[in-house]
């Protein structure tokens, strides 16, 4: 009986060790995946900021061009 109990405890320790290794592997995998996703998010954010600045510049340029075009179009031309 004592030998059976010792073997049962030994089996439980082995199972716990195996499960702990599995948890460590899973944790390592999740950490690597998290680092990769963080990199993707940072890259995407940088691209969005860049394109937003480009769009804002184009929009402001078009507004100034339209204003000057409309002013020239509706300008009263005086003939003496």
From TrEMBL:
The portions of this protein that span the membrane are 48-70
Which is a Pfam family this sequence falls into? Answer: EMP24_GP25L
Please indicate if the UniProt record lists Cell membrane as a keyword.
no
Q: Which UniProt keywords apply?
A: Membrane, Signal, Transmembrane, Transmembrane helix
Main localization (coarse):
membrane
What family does this chain come from, according to its entry? Belongs to the EMP24/GP25L family.
- Which named protein is this? GOLD domain-containing protein
């Amino acid at each position: 009986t004592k030998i059976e109990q010792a073997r049962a405890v030994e089996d439980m320790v082995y199972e716990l060790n195996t499960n702990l290794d599995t948890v460590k592997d899973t944790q390592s995998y999740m950490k690597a995946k998290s680092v990769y996703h963080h990199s993707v998010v940072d890259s995407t954010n940088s691209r969005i900021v860049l394109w937003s600045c480009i769009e804002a510049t184009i929009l402001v340029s078009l507004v100034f061009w339209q204003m000057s075009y409309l002013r020239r179009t509706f300008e009263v031309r005086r003939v003496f």
